[in-house]
Structure formats: C-alpha cells, structure tokens
Amino acid sequence: MLQQVADFRAEAEELYMALATLKQADWQRPTLFKSWTVNDVVQHLHASDLMASASVAGAEPFARFRDDVQTARDSGMSRLEETSQRLGDLTAERLLERWRQQMVDLCDKLSALPADTRLKWAGPDMGVRMFATARQMETWAHGQAIYDLMRKQRQPTARLRNISELGVRTYGWTFANRGVEAPGPVPHVGLRGPSGEVWEWNPPASESRVIGSALDFCQVVTQVRNVADTALRVTGEPARLWMSLAQCFAGPPEDPPAPGARLGSFG
Q1: Strand ranges, E, within 55-149
Q2: Is the pLDDT of residue 242 over 50?
Q3: In whole angstroms, what is the distance from residue 29 CA to residue 157 CA?
Q4: What is the pLDDT of residues 129-141, one digit of tens each?
Q5: pTM of the full predicted structure?
Q6: Largest Cα span, the chain
Q7: Are 243 and 266 contacting, i.e. CB atoms less than 8 angstroms apart?
C-alpha cells in the first residue's frame, strides 16, 4: 500500500474512533463550520469518498456522478441538500459504519492501481499519491470541526507532512482559482513537524517566507483557522497574500474564516 493511502486510512480511522464516542443527540449538533451538524460533515465526507470511488472506476463513471450532482445543484439544491437526497436516511451510527466501510473499500481500490495512474477530480487531474492525500486532507480538515465541537485537542502526527505538501503545491491554484496571477517570488516554506523535524519547500533565499508549525500551516491552507489565529511567521507580500487566501482544496474560491470564528473553546 502506498504510504499516502495508508495515511488516508489512518486519518479516517482516527476520526472514526472519535465519532464512535458520540451520543445520538450529538449528531444533530451544529459545528463552527458553516453551522453544519456532525451528521452533515460525515455525510459530506461519505459522498466525497463515493465520488472518489467513481473516479477510480474510470472517466465515464466519474462524469456521470458529477453530472448527477450538477443537475441537482442546477435545480436549486444546496450542497448539503444534494448530499442528503443522495444518501437518504443514512444518518448517525448507520452513516458512521457505512462511511468507514466505503473508506476502506476506496483505500483497497487505490492500492490496486499502478502508482502512475492519473485520476479525475473537481479540479486538475491527480496522481494516485496526491489523490489519496487530497482525501486525507479533506478528512482531517472536516474532522477538526468535530474535534472542536467535542472540545478535544487532536494530537498532530507525521501525517501532516502530506497535507503540508498539498498546501505548498497549491500555491498557484489558490490564485488561478480566483482568476488572478500568482505573485512572485514563490515563498519559502519552513515547517516544524510534530516530532521536531523540519520540512522545507522552495528556495530558502526567498525574501517571502512562511515559517512555523506544520499544524498551523495545515490549518490555514485547509481554512480550518484564519492565519491570525496561528503563530505562523509570514513575511513578504506574496506570502502574506497567499496566507490570506490559501485554499488547498478543489471547488470554487472560498474565503478563510474570520479571525476567531472557528476557535471555539480553544480561543
């Protein structure tokens, strides 16, 4: 199994264990992520894994899946309404078990693919490694809203290396997705991993820099936190502009949360 696929599965299994401790009523509690309930969050993750499985099945199954989603959205449905219609009465504990089963099946399918396979997605096509990292990233990012709701601190792991890599690689995407040219020079990124190791990207001589913990960086590029709510040291206009807009996920442009908006009990 590719390391990135194993990391995706480990990320999802960790969230599964946290969700398994919830009471029935907790599934309808709103999180600080757009007031989505826990049920909304897990339905979204499950629907995204179903779309990922359609991509693994081939270009045509993926196109059909995307067309179905778009047809529903064109009819006036919101993202949550379309997902709820697709999944029906799949909620709470039944949803949790179905989501995990689908995730395991997806990991098995990804592991069976040649390492050089390219897969379709909502944004640019991706190789298997980055595709698995994107699934890990979404699981980790949406999971944070649930940890915040539960008032639990999540222990950072070396798996953040994958999300950091995705965050750095999507520097250009952040701007292209908004129809503007990416400013230069490309910022140097130096991050401290959970065990004290240092991960670096881009020329260290650059005057534009993002320095700090991998956890803080991952929270910003996934829009889990506003950069003002982290201890990242950001210097140079390209880096400052990037961190104010950073978006490592596909889809239309999204603005980061306002400062303090998603800190919950950890502010």
Answers
A1: 118-119, 126-127
A2: yes
A3: 27
A4: 999 999 999 999 9
A5: 0.95
A6: 55
A7: no
Other Cβ atoms within 10 Å of 40 Cβ, number: 23
CB 204 within 8 A of CB 258: no
Provide the percentage of residues in the chain whose pLDDT is more than 90: 87
Give the 3-state secondary structure of residue 13.
Answer: helix
R_g over Cα of the chain? 18
Kindly state the tokens that stand for 30: 């709103």
**pLDDT tens-digit map of 19-53:** 999 999 999 999 999 999 999 999 999 999 999 99
Residue found under tokens 């960086």: 217
- The alpha carbon dihedral of 147, 153, 154, 156 has a sign of positive
Which residues does 165 contact at the CB level (< 8 Å), separation at least 6?
Answer: 133, 201
- In the block, tokens 């130096």 appear at 190
